[in-house]
Amino acid sequence: MQFVTLNNGVKMPVLGFGVYQIPPSDTERAVSEALEVGYRHIDTAAVYKNEEAVGKAIAASGIPRDDLFVTTKVWISDAGEDAARAAFERSSEKLGLDVVDLYLIHQPFGDVYGSWRALERLNEEGRVRAIGVSNFPNDRLADLIAFNRVVPAVNQVETHPFLQRFADQEFMAGEGVQIESWAPFAEGRNNLFTNPTLSSIARAHDKSVAQVVLRWLIQRGVVVIPKSVRRDRMEENFDVFDFELADSDMAVVTTLEKGEPLFIDHRDPAAVDMLKGVTVE
């Protein structure tokens, strides 16, 4: 496994396993199989409503805690200093973990400053090894950095061949923030898995399109958290460290850029309306 070193010295596996949209009833099995395959980085969130199942899989795995990297996130409905602290305690209990490796503000809405104060305190107390954000545009990220004590270690954002975020990654790197990709496969949109450009590169390396996409992101220094409920796909996604894309391959993938989010535009006021009614409970 390859690692990135976050701005506070914490090491984070560059490849993880995401559990977004996995039903709680199937999450324990999926995480258990992912851990058996070799994943040691698990990404969940309070709003996914499967933290407890993640915790059960971790507990049953017998893997030493120090070998695991676990991320969870605080949702908008729990924004604010007191509410975010209480939300962390609930997540910690469900996960069965006294310490979480990475705790993120899930969305750039609500009382972000209050939530960040709670995260800073949790970090100081050693309850969270690193803190960060998710879905923050550069201006919101710059604002948070400028007026707070701790620079976010991570910004987890939609990143894939159709939304490549090179400029965003450059800005984050300049501020010491690690970019992390959610939806690295764009959830198959734009026919990603049959894309002729990606398919041609995959054939040349005797790999799948999914493996090429993950390799392209990893070689850029982007942390990835692919999701699957199928063990064969988990194994396939994990098997990306035995080949390397040439500079020409990397360049060809850049031609697929569309420049627009495929899921949600966090600069659009409609995004607030859509998300404000979503709650953890």
TrEMBL record:
What are the alphabetically sorted keywords of the record? NADP, Oxidoreductase
Q: Per UniProt, where does substrate bind?
A: 106
Pfam families named in the record: Aldo_ket_red (PF00248)
Q: Which domain of life is it from?
A: Bacteria
Q: Where is this site: Lowers pKa of active site Tyr?
A: 73
Q: Active site located where?
A: 48 (proton donor)
Molecular function GO labels: oxidoreductase activity, acting on the CH-OH group of donors, NAD or NADP as acceptor
Q: Does the keyword NADP apply?
A: yes
Q: Where is the NADP-dependent oxidoreductase domain?
A: 21-255
Q: Which family does it belong to?
A: Belongs to the aldo/keto reductase family.
PANTHER family xref list: 2,5-DIKETO-D-GLUCONIC ACID REDUCTASE, NADP-DEPENDENT OXIDOREDUCTASE DOMAIN-CONTAINING PROTEIN
The identity of this protein, by name, is 2,5-diketo-D-gluconic acid reductase
Lineage here is:
Bacteria, Bacillati, Actinomycetota, Actinomycetes, Actinomycetales
